[in-house]
Design brief:
globular, 31 strands, 22-stranded antiparallel barrel, two-stranded antiparallel sheet
């Protein structure tokens, strides 16, 4: 699949797959280059994916490998005044300090799905990986970061079917064990060159989880699900940079029990009504625990806890699928990103106290007739802080930044004798850019058009296609930097973009 577009966009995608008896394999490679809409916005991404499946009388073995090599310049966020002057400019300091980042990662995973006695099933899974990361930010002191990461995990679960008091149960028990080790260093950024070492520390995370779930078929129409999970996470840092005469080494242990309960009722063979109640526990990642005061971990940052409730209705026929869900999530200590004026582009995190999220989600996929298809997805999001105080003020009652109140995606497609045309629209309401809700990005609606033709040439298929993104050339922001310390919230998105490509199947 070869495609090209304005803004220096070029993509090459090659995929091969096949099977022989009980053995199946897939190999895919993707390479994309983009000069970018804004100054200093070039990006190069490469990925390789390989999968192998083997079906045996006792189960199925899946082996997968994924590698990525990505590099991107960072044009940075702009203030509202800078956007008015020139939407395509880069932030001055991002040019001055040559801001960019690279990621190289490899991950290997092995999964065995086995058959046990009777209808019982089990799964054993494992993975290991390596990541190298480096970036240059738009400031001098500690403006470059590198880390080398090794990560791995093993897990397993066993599902047992049996009747209790005449009621069928599917009882699943399992465990997860994951580990991560980082060698992290920070250097001065001397206008794109590496300067003095400012921080060196080894960071580690060990996560252990145990869970049990019971699916109960109460009647032909009613099904209940009950679950319980225990997690324990240990985070540790070993400070190796002692030039500043302080040792920020330390560790933290975080643990919690969480539950889930669900009940569903089949209204008809095609429709069902369901309700869910669950709690959850989100520990800060090693990156999120970065200390605004220097090395070590942010000692005051706490894990986020949530209780969610959901009520939904869904249905599926040959030509129509729909889903409707209403939900409420109450959060304690939500993790909120911010950065400091002296370190633009580097995120730190704090807890928001109490938050509430109420919403409605609707999706519809309707095959109107043999040639016409209509898809739509809509969400209404009422996300706000209920208790949240910082040194900058009391933000109780403010809308959560970065989350639009409404989002909509819809597409109308026509296809006949291999020729197709698709007209899609993406829209969202205004988005606040800071906790205080004093600045925001305007809402927008974008139209996208794509047309093509599938040509059959013997056993081969040839598909030329042509498209226009942002058909009407609307101005919008494709990314926002929430709570930026210098009010550089805005990253403008591209205007009208034309692309063309050719896809060959053989």
């Amino acid at each position: 699949d070869l495609s090209t577009a304005s803004l220096g966009y070029q993509r090459t995608r090659v995929e091969m797959a096949g099977s022989d008896g009980d053995l199946g394999a897939l190999l895919a490679f993707n390479s994309t280059h983009l000069d970018g809409y804004r100054q200093h916005g070039a990006a190069q991404t490469n990925s390789l994916t390989a999968k192998l499946r083997w079906y045996a009388p006792a189960g199925r073995l899946r082996l997968s490998f994924n590698a990525i090599d990505n590099r991107a310049e960072d044009p940075g966020g702009l203030t509202a005044a800078q956007v008015d002057v020139d939407r395509r400019q880069a932030a001055p300091n991002n040019l001055r300090f040559d801001a960019d980042e690279f990621i190289r990662q490899q991950r290997l995973a092995l999964v065995w799905d086995g058959y046990a006695a009777g209808a019982d099933q089990y799964q054993l899974r494992s993975y290991l990986g390596h990541r190298e990361f480096g970036n240059q930010l738009g400031f001098a002191t500690s403006g470059q970061t590198t880390f080398k990461r090794y990560f791995s995990g093993v897990g397993g679960q066993y599902s047992h079917y049996r009747e209790l008091i005449g009621v069928p149960h599917k009882i699943t028990t399992g465990f997860d064990l994951e580990a991560q080790q980082d060698d992290r260093r920070r250097y001065d950024n001397l206008f794109g060159e590496r300067g003095q070492l400012r921080q060196q520390q080894d960071e580690s995370a060990l996560s252990q989880g145990l869970f049990i779930e019971d699916q109960i078929n109460l009647t032909e129409q009613w099904q209940a699900t009950l679950g319980l999970r225990y997690d324990h996470v240990r985070l540790a840092v070993d400070d190796l940079y002692l030039v500043d005469s302080r040792d920020d080494s330390g560790s933290r242990s975080l643990a919690d029990w969480n539950y889930s309960a669900g009940l569903s009722y089949r209204l008809t063979p095609q429709q069902s009504l369901y309700a869910r109640l669950a709690s959850s526990f989100e520990t800060p990642t090693i990156n999120e625990l970065a200390n605004p005061q220097g090395g070590g971990f942010n000692a005051v940052l706490q894990p986020a806890q949530a209780v969610s409730r959901e009520l939904g209705l869904k249905g599926e026929w040959t030509s129509l699928r729909y889903a409707l869900a209403l939900y409420r999530i109450d959060l304690k200590d939500e993790l909120v990103a911010f950065n400091l004026p002296t370190q633009p582009g580097r995120n730190f995190y704090r807890n928001a106290g109490q938050s509430r999220r109420d919403g409605v989600e609707l999706s519809l996929d309707w095959q109107l007739d043999d040639a016409w298809r209509w898809s739509v997805a809509y969400a209404y999001n009422h996300y706000r802080f209920t208790e949240y105080q910082t040194s900058a003020g009391d933000f109780a009652g403010k809308h959560s930044p970065g989350i639009p109140r409404q989002t909509l995606f819809t597409e109308l497609a026509y296809e006949n004798q291999g020729a197709y045309i698709r007209l899609g629209a993406t829209a969202q309401a205004r988005v606040y850019t800071n906790d205080a809700n004093t600045q925001s990005a305007s809402g927008y609606a974008l139209l996208n058009l794509r047309l093509g033709k599938r040509l059959q040439l013997g056993e081969q298929s040839l598909e030329p296609y042509l498209g226009i993104d942002n058909l009407l050339g609307r101005e919008y922001f494709d990314n926002l930097r929430i709570n930026d310390g210098s009010a550089r919230y805005f990253e403008p998105g591209p205007e009208r973009t034309l692309y063309a490509g050719l896809r060959l199947l053989f």
